[in-house]
Each structure stands twice: as structure tokens, then as C-alpha cells.
Design goal:
single chain, 236 residues, Aminopeptidase, seven-stranded mixed sheet, two-stranded antiparallel ribbon, binds zinc ion
Length: 236
């Protein structure tokens, strides 16, 4: 299959799925007026890990993975092994989940809207539309608030594309731990610049280890969590 990337499956029940995360409580509201669910999980007192899914709402594999984690550790209340303190945001972009879209309700690519030094304006309607201003979007503001308040020592953000652990900042040790569980390629360079991305902002500029976990796109959604679970639990 070389360079081909299959399309993601769409959730049949996106609204129900989004609502299923409501026990976490709301940490904000999206551009389209939908709740952003998130919570600092009980448990560890150790390393602070920010675990995010659904920055791009059409990359459903990442949301299937956060749903699996949610069901195992919150619904079924399985004790987590690690002593890590996890802040969990299963779907940062609920508008995108509901519309099966990369973008939020303002058609902004949230992974181009962070206030990085190299943030660049572009045109509405573009795939990578970065918004009217750096940090303009409510979802970005929610995330910046969490970053400031929780002050994570490591960030993992779930996407889907060609399978890889994309390392941003000093995250190689984390990548190796994940790679030991799932033999995805570890890379620093995804082949094009990403101004306004979380990885550029928090990883490269703030030097907080950040991994953009690109789950293999096109996996059956009910298989995803079983495939990525080990890699997630190696760091969450
Ligand atoms: Zn993505």
C-alpha cells in the first residue's frame, strides 16, 4: 500500500458517542456550541500527562482510542497502573466529530490555530485554515487554559494518518516506550511545516515533550483501541 492512506470510517452514532463522555464534565464550549468534555483523572500523583483526542474530528481512529480508554478506566473504573496524573480530553473538537470534519464550527483547523511564533494567516476555506487570529478559537483557548493550569510534563495527542509517533520537543524517551508496544515509525519530521500546531507550540517552543500519535488511518473503529492500548498505557 506504499504511500496510500485509506479513508477513516465515520461513526454512525457521533452525537451519542460525544454525549457518552459527559461524566467527565465540561471544560468549555466549542465554536458550534457543543460541550468540550475533560477531566483531571483521580489517581496518580506522579508525572503530569495531558492526553488529547479528536483535534481533527474526522480522524475518528483517535476518538475510538479515547473512547476505549474512557470505557476501561472511567466507566468500568479499572485501576490505572501508572502513578501518572492524567488530564483527559477525549474530543477537543466536538463540532468536527459531529460533522465528520477536520475543522471546528468556524471551519478552522485547530492544529494551526495555536499562538506559535510562526503562526501564519491564510484564507478561509483552506484545508489548513488557521483562523482569523492566532488563538482565536474557543477550543484553542480551552486547551491553553488546561496547559497553563495543569502544566503537563508530557502531552500525547491522537490523530490518524500514516502510522507514526511524531516527536515534538524532547519526547524521544516517550516515543521509545510507545514504540516498544507498537512498532510505529518514530519521526521528528512529518514532511511539511505545521505552524500553529500543538506540537510546534508546546513541544518545540516550550520544550515540553509532545507526541502526535498518528494512528494508522482506515482501521475498523472497533479494532483501534486493542491495537493502540499498549502504547497509550506506556505513557498514560
Ligand atoms: Zn490530524
Amino acid at each position: 500500500m506504499a504511500d496510500e492512506v485509506k479513508p477513516s470510517y465515520e461513526f454512525a452514532n457521533a452525537r451519542e458517542l460525544l454525549q457518552s463522555f459527559s461524566p467527565l464534565g465540561s471544560i468549555g464550549t466549542s465554536a458550534g456550541g457543543n460541550p468540550i468534555w475533560g477531566k483531571r483523572l483521580d489517581g496518580g500523583s506522579g508525572e503530569r500527562v495531558l492526553f488529547i483526542g479528536g483535534v481533527h474530528g474526522n480522524e475518528t481512529e483517535g476518538i475510538a482510542a479515547t473512547k476505549g480508554f474512557f470505557d476501561e478506566f472511567i466507566v468500568n473504573a479499572t485501576p490505572r497502573r501508572g502513578a501518572r496524573e492524567v488530564f483527559f480530553i477525549p474530543v477537543l473538537n466536538p463540532d468536527g466529530l459531529l460533522n465528520f470534519s477536520r475543522h471546528n464550527g468556524n471551519r478552522v483547523d485547530l492544529n494551526r490555530n495555536m499562538p506559535t511564533a510562526d503562526w501564519k494567516a491564510n484564507e478561509p476555506g483552506e484545508k489548513y485554515y488557521s483562523g482569523p487570529a492566532a488563538g482565536s478559537e474557543p477550543e484553542t483557548q480551552v486547551l491553553l487554559q488546561v496547559l497553563n493550569d495543569f502544566n503537563p510534563q508530557f502531552i500525547v495527542s491522537l490523530h490518524s494518518w500514516k502510522p507514526m509517533f511524531n516527536v515534538n520537543g524532547p519526547a524521544h524517551e516517550y516515543a521509545r516506550r510507545m514504540h516498544a508496544e507498537l512498532p510505529y515509525e518514530i519521526t521528528e519530521d512529518i514532511g511539511y511545516p505545521t505552524p500553529g500546531s500543538l506540537g510546534t507550540y508546546w513541544g518545540w517552543e516550550k520544550q515540553i515533550p509532545t507526541i502526535t500519535f498518528e494512528i494508522e488511518r482506515g482501521l475498523p473503529l472497533d479494532k483501534v483501541y486493542g491495537i493502540v492500548r499498549g502504547a497509550l498505557l506506556a505513557v498514560c
